[in-house]
Amino acid sequence: MLVTENVSLVIVSHSPDVARGTADMVRQMVGDEVKVAYCGGDPDGGLGTDVQKILRAIDEAWSPRGVAILVDLGGAETNSEMAIEMLPEERRGRVVLCNSPLVEGAIMAATEASGGASLAEVCATAEELSPR
Amino acid sequence: MTAFSDPASNPLARQSVTASVRLRHEAGLHARPAVKLTKLAKKFASKISLAISVEGPWIDAKSIVKLMGAKTPRDSLLVFRAEGADAQAAVDALVSLVERDFPDEP
């Protein structure tokens, strides 16, 4: 199956190590039929998130089926929202922020995406984990 | 509409197939086996349910969240029930995956 046929994921954490580790878990547990890009850390190398890094990760992961973004805390969410707003109009509607725990949500989202599910289904699967 | 007297001759007939297998995997149906099982189930068009008893309760075998949430321990009976045109192939493949202890290449 072509990688581009599936929704892909972007992992955004305050910590570059958490982001990379989460992406590793997705690749090892789910496989490589779902593209995963990740970013973490502020521009100075400290803990934090950075809109430009998030935009690059979205670009790297881009799939015409859409991109699901998984985030950890606070700024990761607001900066991801900002990155989505800065996307070219034709891409903006195909990128969605999932409201789920980062690591667990990423595994669930990737498993769902690997079967060819839509962006809405992928996000809904990750969000099933979140107590409301 | 054409009537089919013999369901086997009708490719559109909804077949229901059930089979069970004992889960011998050391840690039970934990994360990696659950992901493999879900991914395999998603390859089939049939509706596929899973229970630890023929009486149910049944969960959707294509839902990774439900499968992991079930926290099925080692030595449980896994009962697969598939409904649809490829039900037999689906159940055979899933039982085989469990029997072969969730190999990396299915």
Helical content class of chain B:
25-40%
Largest sheet composition of chain B: 4 strands, antiparallel
The helicity of chain A comes to: 40-55%
Structural class of chain A: alpha/beta
- Quaternary state of this entry equals heterodimer
Report the order of strands and helices of chain A: EHEHEHHEHH
Tell me, what's the shape of chain B?
globular
Question: Going across the major beta sheet of chain B, what is the strand order?
Answer: 1-4-2-3
Strand fraction of chain B equals: 15-25%
Mean pLDDT of chain A: 94
Structural class of chain B: alpha+beta
Mean pLDDT of chain B: 89
What's the β-strand tally of chain A?
A: 4
Please trace the helix and strand order of chain B, writing H or E for each element.
EHEEHEH
Report the portion of residues of chain A in β strands: 15-25%
What is the count of β-strands of chain B?
Answer: 4
Strand order of the largest sheet of chain A: 2-1-3-4
Largest sheet of chain A: 4 strands, parallel
Q: What is the molecular shape of chain A?
A: globular
Q: How far apart lie the N and C ends of chain B?
A: 40 Å
